[in-house]
Amino acid sequence: MIKKLILVFFIVTTQSFSQYNGSKFSFGVNTLFTTTSKVFLFPNSSDEILRNTSNHIDNIFDYGVEFRYRFSEDIILGLNVEYMRATQTGTNITGFIGNSTVALNAEDGFEVIPVELSVYYVLPFSTDNFRFLMGGGGAVYFGNHIRKVGTVEVNNFSRDFAYGVHVSISMQYLVRPHISIQAGLKFRDPDFRVTSQYTSKSVSIGGRIITFPQSKFDSRINVDGVTFMLGLYYDF
User: What is the third-level CATH fold of 2-235?
Assistant: First the structure.
């Protein structure tokens, strides 16, 4: 019985790799959708409630490219680079007119460039037309805080590099030899801090000069949502 199971496993596994047609490399372009993220505007506050207060930015679309190398019959190495940008407009900061405070409407958000190194395992029940991949690895995330109040924007004064891990599961369908469509899920949790500086100490809105309470400010960005992937890959 055991010999029969081993034989079946060998046959299924052997069939699963005929789909590569001798190709060692592949290149893919992906569209990604991330369900949610958070921007913490007071990450260094001594008040726990204020420190944990965040603005949610949901339903984020971004894009990326990936280069893969088939290391062995069942192991694939991948290098993925993405560009994610998300903003929303809201009344979430204050300014001064003389001794009075006013609420300011601002476009607030972030941009992140994830650079991920992954190891994929081709699951043995893959077939000539379908590849099932389970993967995981490490990543570094480069990010900026985006803010625009009237004509005034911010520059990032300093930033921390964020490191993290990710896991994914995906399926590729071979549309024709060397060309496949991929769909999958990715789980990750980028979290980084940024110190930003306004390009001006004040802004003119409605004929009034409004002064910002501080020229520099800290923020924390966390992209904690599930990421859905849809892409096109070419084997060569």
Answer: Porin (2.40.160)
